[in-house]
Predict the structure.
Amino acid sequence: NAGVMQNPRHLVRRRGQEARLRCSPMKGHSHVYWYRQLPEEGLKFMVYLQKENIIDESGMPKERFSAEFPKEGPSILRIQQVVRGDSAAYFCASSRTQGPDTQYFGPGTRLTVL
Amino acid sequence: QQQVKQSPQSLIVQKGGISIINCAYENTAFDYFPWYQQFPGKGPALLIAIRPDVSEKKEGRFTISFNKSAKQFSLHIMDSQPGDSATYFCAASLQGGSEKLVFGKGTKLTVNP
């Protein structure tokens, strides 16, 4: 039973480029959450998605950031025109559809903006 | 009101000792309180979680104590081992964990042999 998968694990981008981070939830999970972790900081919620729907994007910056979770395929976190301040570890978590539940985290994508 | 405050920031314990990490929250609507363990370069892994209808939950060497009136909860690691050296995060959530998690800033635990 594979866990949450994220790719790439490491991503280097120059300022102004686009970054695409992918997350495949655990089998049977249809809820996906994205969190950002800055060095020496806790994780900060960004966005919560279900299949084809954004449920809560209250933690996502209004500009340059977008997320999707299509009917087929992984969830994508997209950062346009990256800046150095976007350098961080981005974690995806997934949970099942019903009932009290827990979020299981992937290994993260470490984004470095040069 | 959405904050979770965690202390201490770092903790050094001798092998065999007890490690205690504390968290406090403001939002009384939180109803799910997990603890995560994170090793360098890895994602957080769920360690143990508690709901406010119980005051204590124990799993092996790990115990959560929960004080609803004080809006505080803590993680106790008994017989701490060098392999427990990691960063620990407390968190809180609404709707039994199906909504976003609000994390504390983390505690870096070092267990000396």
